[in-house]
Amino acid sequence: MLEFTTAQIALGQVAVDKTAALGLLGARLVEDGLVAEGYLAGLQAREAQGSTYLGQGIAIPHGTPQTRDQVFATGVRLMQFPAGVDWGDGQMVYLAIAIAARSDEHLRLLQQLTRALGEADLADALRGAQSADALLQLLQGASPEVLLDERSIGLGVSADDFDDLLWQGARLLRRAECVDASFSARLQQKEPLLLGEGLWLLSCDQSVRAPGLAFVTPQQPLRHLGQPLNGLFCLASHGDAQHALLDRLCTLLIEGRGQELLRATAVNGVLALLGGAVPDDWPSARIALANPHGLHARPAKILAQLAKEFDGEVRVRVADSAGTPVSVKSLSKLLSLGARRGQVLEFSVEPAIAEALPLLLKAVEDGLGEEVEALTPLAPLPQELDEADIVPVMPVAGAIIQGVAAASGIANGPAHVQLQQAFDYPLRGESPAVERQHLRAALERVRADIDELIQRSDVTAIREIFITHQEMLADPGLAEEVEVRLRQGESAPAAWLAVIDSAARQQESLQDTLLAERAADLRDVGRRVLMQLCGISETPEPQQPYVLVMAEVGPSDVARLDPARVAGILTARGGATAHSAIVARALGIPAVVGAGDGVLLIASGTPLLLDGQRGRVTVDPAIDVLAHALAEREQRVQRQQAADARRLEPAITRDGHAVEVFANIGESAGIDRIVEQGAEGVGLLRTELIFMAHPQLPDEATQEAEYRRVLDGLAGRPLVVRTLDVGGDKPLPYWPIAKEENPFLGVRGIRLTLQRPKVMESQLRALLRAAGDRPLRIMFPMVGQIEEWREARRMVDRLLEEIPVADLQVGIMIEVPSAALLAPVLAAEVDFFSVGTNDLTQYTLAIDRGHPSLSAQADGLHPAVLSLIDMTVRAAHAHGKWVGVCGELAADAQAVPLLVGLDVDELSVAARSIAEVKAQVRALSIEQARGLARQALALGSAAEVRALVEMH
Ligand code: PEP
Ligand code: MG
Fold it and tell me: Record's Pfam families (predicted)?
């Protein structure tokens, strides 16, 4: 994407007129290799069609579509003309930004630029800027938008006095994440300003994260300092950001329209008056934009000129977007919409100039001075398809249902289908005091219940989940929001559900798998409280061992179960990484999740056979099928016992080929237990988990202590450490990363750490210092380009001069197909490869590894993934380097023979799988495994590969 940098800026330029200025700019673009000489004619032709003056002393000369073929590379060059250049019509330009673009990339730049310009005039500052940095800062130092929307308005709130009202206003700002918790206390210390008509203003710039204006009115009339208190503005002020908004407010009051604010019964009315939204009674109409390059400067200018002919407000927004309407009379605002061809513009005009509306639509339809080709409407879908149209089918006897394998083991028993009960409660409460009391009692009962579960559970994973539930219940933010609703007259269940639902939705909307799962926890604990409030109790469990069938099992549902009675768990929704799956695994209950809504139609009592390892459920199995499965279960138990007994021995195939079996870990604690479980080393230390366990970036000494503890515990066994792998779907709470459309394809892993070399350096130093003469292997995640590897390696080499390590190897993870395809080149430079099959599979098959319905298809045994592993191993061995596999595939019973057959040297798995994987290796012959692997590589699908392995 186009961006401004200081290198593009030339200060102090002089041009007698626009033609001379264009000549200078054109020459600079040519000189820097961005365009051919013919582009200058394009710049001139474009100006002849219409001036590229943008406003605030800035012009944005660019070529015509006909001269795009003169562009070699997209880019911009900026020239400052302190004496000014007349750009036509007396419009003086002090900064000209020449754009060379082959496509419509410059629209983005314009949008960025016009947003940055804000409402204050920058012309003088641009003209006087003394350095490229200062100029850049002017372009980038945009005042952030002041938050003013439905979240920051509270009309008719329950408040007994000024302080109460202030607290309500501050709470809205806090909820919108404009301010910190201490803001209300700070605001309280400020002098309130009476604006007139009972409206007051309080402003504070401390504890402010982003500027915002809250407006609250009390339910009943109040007085403060002997004056009426009809409404209070609470301003979280931030630099100059709020000037324009305060200006609008003052104008409104000067015009004597303050009462209109107080009379507004709906939030929209207030927003309209303060300029944030369009009033309901303004006529509006929509039209699709057909201009080939969107609403760029020239058509936008024509539109703005047309709007200026009317004596009233004209606004426009991109329909179905989150953007607020902007004034059509402002060219920079119009450009800031970044509207593209095909997007629908929604115009609204003041009722007094309703006649403007059809004229504006006509102008857009006619192309705003450009030739436009009509948009072809998309053929309507034969019928609207949504999830409701997918009718679940009741599985018949003998049917095999494929779901996601969540916890291994074979279970059989009658189905116990638990459907969610409907909650029935009044929306309005008796009184805030009574409802508050109900809620307190319900919360206390749920807390006591959870306490008991924590005491009862000896599994750490389960205890931690319940401790999180307790923290969720104690969250003051939730309590505050419920309190506000209770004061507004809602019943306790209505208020509670609304707040939980909104908090959970917010987490879900962040498109982060982990946060989405925490949202499931929030809903789970929220439902417990709701059940208490509505007097609903659990359906009694059957007496004999059964298979629990539910839409989605909340962690607390699972943890409440008696494993002696619950033979297995089957859910319609959810994925293998959900908390419920973790709990099921911890309790040793076989589970299949995400099997589809059809399972909810199974009648309670229907016999089910569930295979948690294959993710399969057989409905009402035939006797021989059942007998076969039970025999297999017995064999598995015996196999596990035999494997456990030999867990400390090496894994050597029948014909003498050794494979190392290492452990994957995410914390330094418990390393002794891992060695005791048979680990011959650590094959993957996920250091981000160590970072996540700290409230802030752990310093070098803290990290060193963590790594040292692992190395001490390993007592001379190798430690393979992966450098920090955050970003994308793995956030670190204290490391803000811009939200991305496709986080898995965004700034994550090494891409992120190379952008923050200090963090990476400090981690590497800590590792090197901790190592001493112990075997340390360092690898980098998500490497996709050779330069990434080289830069990282250079950093290690530099640090090694300072902190020598006797036994160090440096390698990369193979997680991105490009790295596997480049393995022959990379292998000459690295010391080893470790294949991260979780990511390699998602990127090879283009299936999001956390996708709720597709992730079951993201099978690492797909021949395409196996081929990439094969290429990697061949390349590494040709250079005498070793290859490990540290993704989940390494512990997959059907994958082990193939990975060994592909000549992988090391398998790194969860500690509990070590004994079993070793046992599997011992049962193999390397020659047969190699033959099997070659056959698998020639197949067409993961299912065929699995069938092949099953046959052997
Ligand atoms: C992998 O991608 O296989 C891997 C081991 O890394 P993670 O699962 O931590 O992304
Ligand atoms: Mg990975």
Answer: PEP-utilisers_N, PEP-utilizers, PEP-utilizers_C, PTS-HPr, PTS_EIIA_2
User: Which ligand 1 atom sits nearest the alpha carbon of residue 781?
Assistant: 6
Task: Give the distance (Å) from ligand 1 centre to CA of residue 781.
Answer: 8
- Is the Cβ–Cβ distance between 237 and 204 less than 8 Å? yes
Long-range contacts of 391-397 (CB under 8 A, 24+ apart): 392/596, 392/597, 392/598, 392/600, 392/601, 393/598, 393/601, 394/598, 394/601, 394/602, 395/598, 395/599, 395/601, 395/602, 395/619, 396/619, 397/619, 397/620
Residue owning the nearest CA to atom 4 of ligand 1: 836
Is it the case that residue 344 has pLDDT exceeding 70? yes
Closest CA to 595 of 541, 635, 535, 553: 553
Is the pLDDT at 388 greater than 80, yes or no?
no
Among 177-181, 422-426, 584-588, the range of highest mean pLDDT = 177-181
**Residue whose CB lies within 8 A of the most ligand 1 atoms, among 665, 782, 886, for a mutation test:** 886
Q: How far is 602 from 598, CA to CA, in rounded Å?
A: 7
- Which whole-number Å values give the CA distances from 249 to 192, 674, 678, in the listed order? 16, 65, 71
Contact 734, 696 (CB under 8 A): yes
Euclidean distance between CA atoms 678 and 697, whole angstroms: 32
918 close to ligand 1 (CB < 6 Angstrom): no
Residue 679 has pLDDT above 90, yes or no: yes
DSSP class of 35: B
Segment (H or E) for 284: strand 284-288
Q: Is 579 a catalytic residue?
A: yes
CA dihedral 740→745→751→752, nearest 10 degrees, is 30
Rounded CA-CA distance 584/515 in Å is: 20
pLDDT band, residue 25 (cuts 50/70/90):
very high
Q: Which DSSP string corresponds to 592-646?
A: EE---GGGGGSPTT-EEEEETTTTEEEES--HHHHHHHHHHHHHHHHHHHHHHHT
Q: How far apart are CA 179 and CA 170, in angstroms?
A: 8
How deeply is 385 buried, as exposed, middle or buried, from its count of CB atoms within 10 A (0-12, 13-18, 19+)? exposed
- Per residue in 124-164, pLDDT (tens digit) is 888 888 888 888 877 765 556 678 877 888 888 888 899 99
Distance 692 CA to ligand 1 centre (A): 16
Atom nearest to 840 CA in ligand 1: 2
Mean pLDDT of the 497-515 span: 72
- What is the C-alpha separation between 474 and 525, in angstroms, rounded? 11
293 catalytic? Reply is no
Residue whose C-alpha is closest to residue 415's, from 401, 404, 426: 401
Amino acid at 276: G
CA torsion sign for 864, 867, 869, 875 is negative
Q: Confirm or reject: Cβ of 299 under 6 Å from ligand 1.
A: no
> What pLDDT is attached to residue 276?
58
Atom of ligand 1 nearest to the CA of 686: 9
Residue-averaged pLDDT of the chain? 85
The pTM of this model reads 0.52
Distance, in Å, from the CA atom of 541 to the CA atom of 284, rounded to the nearest integer, reads 58
Contact 679, 650 (CB under 8 A): no
* 335: confidence class by pLDDT, cuts 50, 70, 90: confident
Average pLDDT over residues 287-305: 84
Cβ atoms of 425 and 580 closer than 8 Å: no
Q: Which segments of 646-756 does DSSP mark as H helices, in order?
A: 671-676, 687-692, 700-714, 750-755
Residue 755's closest CA among 792, 704, 797?
Answer: 792
Name, in order, each residue with C-beta under 8 angstroms of 790's C-beta and a sequence gap of 6 or more.
Answer: 829
Task: Tell me how far apart the alpha carbons of residues 129 and 153 are, in angstroms, rounded to a whole number.
Answer: 40
- What is the per-residue pLDDT for 869? 98
- Quickly state the pLDDT bin for 741 (edges 50, 70, 90): confident
Is residue 819 packed enough to be buried (19+ CB in 10 Å), middle (13-18) or exposed (0-12)?
Answer: buried
